[in-house]
Each structure stands twice: as structure tokens, then as C-alpha cells.
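Quick one - inputs below.
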Amino acid sequence: MIKKLRANWLSIALAVVVLISFILSAIIWTNPFQYDHPRRENGTGASQQQTTQSIGDVYLPTTIVKTNGDNNQQLLYSQRKNLIYHAKKAMTGWQLGGTSTVKTNNSDVYLSYLRHRNSLMLSYPDDISGTVFNETFKQSIDTNRVKKINHIVIPLNGTKAIYLLSDSHYAIYRVRITKGSPESMVTSKRGVKPISVDHRIVNGHAVMIYLHSFTLPRLAYQISDQKINNLSANLMSTNQHTNTTTHQDGNRTVYTDGTNRHLVYDATRGTVDYENDVGRSDVVETSQIYSHFYRALVKTGMPLNNIRFDEVSNGGRTITYRSYVEGFPIINDNNYGGAKLRANQRGTEHYLLSLYTVQVPLPLDGSTVKLPSTASVLNQLHENGHFKNVTNLRVGYEWKSDSENHQTVKIEPTYFVKYRGRWINYTALLK
Amino acid sequence: MNFKRIQWIFLFAFLVFDLVVAGSLFFQNRFTISNSNPNRQEMVLKEMKVDEISCKPLSNQQKLGYYIAGSRSGENDKLDSQTSKLHDQNYRFSSNTLVSTFDNPIKVDRHHPEQRLNRLVKNAHSIALGKEYHYDAQLSDYNTAVYTQRLAHQALDSTDGQLRFRINSNGAVTGYTQTYLENRRILRPEAPIISQQHAVTWLYKHNLIPNNSQVRWAKLTYTKLLVTNSHDQNVYVPTWVVEVRTKNADTVQHLRVNAFNSTIMKSSPDNVNMSSIDK
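Output:
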């Protein structure tokens, strides 16, 4: 037997390497997206604007919640400190290892991880992909296992692991920390104003609720407006030689390149509605949508300083971006300060944009708004009979469109409810 | 060619294939991470060298900055009220500026006036609120020693917060003028700003640094971005000030880059009318 092996060792070795090559080929074929990385295209190409915001700056968690040893949760709010930035910086220095699934489809267990004792939790406004997590925190966790993430739970009691939570299917993943110490993330309390919160599961969503009434400041901003000529040139330009034609239709200007690009600019509202027929063969894959739309945003030339990913819908084919201030989204009927990008499966991309964003904060007298507890808001909605149409709720800043004043804006904090698919100020429902 | 030789060639070929594919599968993440921004900037720095633009090593460190509001201290405000402590000088406060003459001129070394003046500035009986000012060698010249007020640990590059000492022909300080920025308030949480290297390469890429010149220094300061009509408050923003000297013509210019959004600062700040929202 051994003699035979020795005689044919060359054939056996050849068989082994051929087999290995088969296995490797199979791995590549089954995971094609592992090869596709969101590219950082900062400041390359003549048509692109100088952006210092990488993809990881746009897809950032927006809230940071601390859970104490006695299970009390506090939203860490600060007007001075950028706690998310510091958390991100610390985490990019870690090395994360193997991933395992702790539990799925059990909302009670899921809730207990949302309220993990002695922990910091970073939360995204909506689902992000494992690939985006890797890109943001310079990690390489197993994206086959972890497809979607809503919360990152970082235990501070010496556990050498973090938990990634996904609201869909209540999935809990454990990721080992092979290098790095979460204990160092305990932030100093200077400049931080904690707000008492808790987490509940409402209609299958993990919702953060505010236990008591609290105050937030009114804020003022200078409005920056992008020139429509720049925006239209950025969107309508192609490598091919095509002529863009424009025609005026009342307050609206329509730009077309004759074949597949179409842009409508509404001068009174300052909004832009852009459609591009990329064709069936170039439909972007759903797994690529986060990086595809990041590149689209960069291409528009819109300043991305305060822009954050906010919502994903339509089976992962539509993404809404909004401006964020001090951890809260700015919500406006005309998408001011934000963008809504959609790519359907038939090969049409549809962008809703606006020319206005907020960039420079202005000094205000320091007046504040007292917001009620979440329970009292829900009670008021109950009494009004609107509760059944409300699917979600959160605190944000309202930017009221003012056709008279395009220079400055005062934004006010309030509760927003998701009512028939749109975020609206809850007081509008109480009238 | 015998069969054994063919087997050898196949074995070798498959082995190489396996190693390359396995390697790219396991190390792909490491590869892409190194392919990021700083490398592109290094390339720009090399291009600058070809264009004979010299500069000292530039820092790539990412810092944080604030938008800060403040107003110039006026009559009966903080600076004016502190003047009662001052000794051995003749002063008056007019158009938001303190102008003072020392009873006895103070002899200083023209090239290093700070060696003597630092002690004076820290003394509350000589200079009001002096602890908030630091000597600024770049703004000082033969006849003037300049101290700038500090804002979030950086120099305030504005006439709204400066101490200017007059040095006479005998090398003695005869008096000074002082302005002070008060009611300082952080308007928004800290945010990352561009690095020193980014600021200089940005200026080069936008053709603002001529060929055959020298970048002498680049420092982070706060400069005035906006003037509002709400209680005369101004908004200050972190700014990279870059001094460029052309070697042929020997001219010196200061370029200012907004460190939040990499744009050139305007020569005078914008005015913002807040009356419609400031109720």
C-alpha cells in the first residue's frame, strides 16, 4: 500500500491541487460580492467636487445609548462633543475576529440585548449592510452571515466581544474582539447631557422611547444653496458626446439629453427631480446599493458634511439621506438638506434632490423647547384616533419651508410620526 | 515529453493558481484599506516637488474643530470692566478698543520681544485678561509685537482679539492696543477638519500656489466667517493659513482655507441678516 502511494505520489499531489482549485473556484463563484468593495472616489475626476466625506462618514450610527448596571438607559446627547466620531475612531483601531449567531426570531431575547447591562449601544436610523459596517470601521467581519445591522452593542464589563443586532428577524450576532479594549470607550461626562430613554418593540420595530419630558435647544442655520447650473451639469454630463437641451415651463426648467437622462428643476421650491434610464443590463445589484448611491451623492456635488444615511425602503432599492444636527435628523417636506435616491429593477434611477442644505450654524438667544415623554405623545395620538396609522416615531428637527427667506432658517425639535409612509410633525395630527 | 514531466508542469501550474487565489481571498481587505486618500496626497506632494514648490514636512493628522460665535467686547463689557485693575499706564476705551500708553517704556529684544513681554501679559495689573493671549511670531514685525487671543486652543486670526505692542526706534515698548472677543459659544458639536497636508495640496491642485515658490508655514487658526446683526455676534471657523513666498519676485502672500469644507475664505466675512428668525 505504502509502496503504491510512494510510486504514484506525483499523481496524488496533482489530484489534491486540482481539487483545491475547484474548491477555491466554488468559493469565488458563490460569493461574487466579496470582490466588490465600495470604492472611495474622493476628489478624483474633473467633474467631481472635493469631498472629504468618505462612505464611512455618510453611513454612520447616529445615536449612542449607555446602559448602566441597573438597566437604566441614557441617550448621550452633547452640544460640544462628537461622541460617534470618537467611538468610530476607537473601533477602527480594533481587530474583530470570528462571528457567530447568538439567536434569531426571538423578540424577548432581542430586547434583552438592546438593554444589555453595562454597555454602549450605537444605533443606525435604519438597516445597513455588513459590507458598509466593514468599510466604516475598517473591519472584515463575515458579511455572508451578517447581512443587515441596526445596532452595535459594546459591553463594557470586560467581555471580549461586541454584538451586532438586526431588527429584521431579531438576529443577534456575536463578534469576537481579538485586539482592542472596549473599556477604554467609557467617555468622560463633561459636556454630555444624558436623556433617559428605553427600548421597546413596537410593530416589529425596535423603537427608542423617551421616559420623561426633556428639553432641546432651538437652532439656527445659514442656508447654503447649490447653483442649479452646477448640479445639472454634474448630473447630465457623460463620457459620450451628447447635447443637453433645456426648456422653460413656467417655474420649471426641464433638462434632457435626448436619450435617457431627464432633469426637472422647480425654481419656486428649489427641488430637483432627476431620472436616468441606465438600461436593464446595468441595473445595480441590491447588495451594491449603499456604495452606488454614495458615489451618486458625491457626483451631485452636494456638500456632505452633515449628511447621514437615514432610511432604506422598497426592498433595499430606495435610500433616503438627511442632514443631522447633534444626533437628530432634520426633516423637511421638500427634502431640503437631504436626498432620496431610488434604483428600480427595470434599470431606471430616480433621484429627488434639493438645492438647499444647512452648513453654518448661527448664534441664537439660547431658547429651548420642552418635549413631552413618548408615552404622553402616544396617549394623545390614541385619544385622537390616529394611533392605528402610525408605524414609527422619533425625535427630529423640523425645517419649515419658507419661500420668503432662503438665507437663514430656525429649526425646532419635535416628535415626528410615520403616518401613511411619511414623517410628519405629530402636532399636525392632533389638530 | 514524457508523462511524468507533464504531470510536474501541471502540478506547478495548479499550485501557483491555488496560492494566488487563496491569497487574494484571505488578504483582499488588507489590500483595499491601504488604497485610500493619503496615498493620493503623497502623489500630489511629489508633483509639487517637480514644480519646484518646496515645503517642510506636513502633518496628516486629523483634528476636530468648532463653529464658534462671539462678539467684540464693547463699552462696559468684560474688557472695559477689567481695566480698573490696570497700573502704571494711561488708557482710554473707544470704538471697542483699549488704547494704552505705559508710564515707563519697557526695553525688549526686537527679535524676541516675548521673552520680556510674556511676564507682563500674564500680570493682571499690566494687561487685562492677558492670560488668554499668546505671542504670535508670524504676525509680529520690526515695530510691533502681536499677541493673539486663543479660541478652542488655537490662535484667533482676527482683529477682534489681539494685543499689539508698539516698539519704538530705541527698542522699547511704549504702549499697546487691545481688543477682546467675549460671549464665546460653541454652536455645533466638534467635527473633523482637513489636515495640514490636505490644505496645502488642495491649494496646489487649485493652482493657488505658483511654481518655483516656497510654502513657509501652514497653521491652524480661527477666522471670522460671518457677521450677524443679532447682538453683533460673529461666527468663527477653523482655518488653515498658509504663507507662500515666490522665489523670483520675493512676494509673500497668505492663503486662507476653510478647514471644514476646503474652500478659500473670502477677503471679508459675509453679512447675515437674522432679523426674520431672531424673535
